Amino acid sequence: MSFLPTGTVYGVLLNFRAEFGALAPRMHEPPYKAPPKAPVLYVKTANTWTPSGGAIALPARVPEVEVGATIGMVFGEAGRVAGYVLMNDLSVPHASFFRPPVKFKCLDGFLGIGPALREGGDPGGFSLEVHIDGELRHAADFSQLVRSAAQLRADVGEFMTLRPGDVLMLGCNAGRPLAKAGQRIEITAPGFEPLANTLVQEAA
């Protein structure tokens, strides 16, 4: 049976150095006028979850999606990390990074979830690749996080409790590729079960 979360799935923005650096000049513009001091989180609601191997339907109004390949920390009892899982955090391309818009990130099926947990390992040594129709289109090295997995976990814990079954994604690297209906997305990482989903056009 494929893995699916039993709690809440949280995404985090601006946690790769390249992404943070690219957006740094905009952080000093209104309305915030400064970089965020705490992790910028959003929720991927249960309607977005698609197991590995499942098809993800794109509405007619969405010609292409942004592929957000990442790794999620899955929490167990007493705040410990039970394991890690590959995730494909899809979103409609948009320019708002400070207040993640639900209408672009929480469409039905818009979170591919890897088939199995990896237990143990140092997240700082994780890396992944994204292949679209067999072509390498993206890579991420998790030694390049702004907040390491441990620091992210601690900082989030300052203002909220992560409960058993919750998942906290580590963030997506800059340069996320685009994909459209008819294409197959595969995310691979050493020590992880691959995550693969095919995009299809939603029936009219």
Topology:
Elements: E1 9-13, H1 17-23, E2 40-44, E3 49-51, E4 55-58, E5 65-66, E6 69-75, E7 81-89, H2 102-105, E8 111-113, E9 127-132, E10 135-141, H3 149-157, E11 167-169, E12 178-179, E13 184-188, E14 195-201
Parallel strand pairs: 1-11, 3-8, 4-14
Antiparallel strand pairs: 1-2, 5-12, 6-7, 6-11, 7-8, 9-10, 9-13, 13-14
Descriptive report:
The chain has one domain (9-201): Fumarylacetoacetate hydrolase, domain 2. The chain is globular and about 45 Å long. It has a seven-stranded mixed beta sheet, with no helix packed on it. Strands 4-14-13-9-10 form a five-stranded mixed beta sheet, with no helix packed on it. Strands 5-12 form a two-stranded antiparallel sheet. It is mostly beta strands and 204 residues long. The mean pLDDT is 93. Helix content is 10%, strand content 33%.
Brief summary:
The chain is mainly beta and 204 residues long.
Quick tags:
204 residues; 14 strands; single chain; 3 helices; mainly beta; Fumarylacetoacetate hydrolase, domain 2; 7-stranded mixed beta sheet
For this structure, the CATH topology is Fumarylacetoacetate hydrolase, domain 2
Report on the biggest sheet. 7 strands, mixed
Q: Which percent range fits the helix content? A: under 10%
Beginning-to-end CA distance, first to last residue? 31 Å
- Helical run tally: 3
Q: How many domains is the backbone divided into?
A: 1
Beta content comes to 25-35%
> What's the CATH H-level homologous superfamily?
Fumarylacetoacetase-like, C-terminal domain
- Biggest sheet strand order reads 2-1-11-6-7-8-3
Mind telling me the CATH class? Answer: Alpha Beta
| Mean pLDDT rating | 93
In N-to-C order, the SSE pattern is EHEEEEEEHEEEHEEEE
What's the CATH architecture name?
Alpha-Beta Complex
Tell the overall outline: globular
- The Cα radius of gyration reads 16 Å
- SS-derived structural category: mainly beta
Low-confidence stretches: none
Task: Tell me the total number of β-strands.
Answer: 14
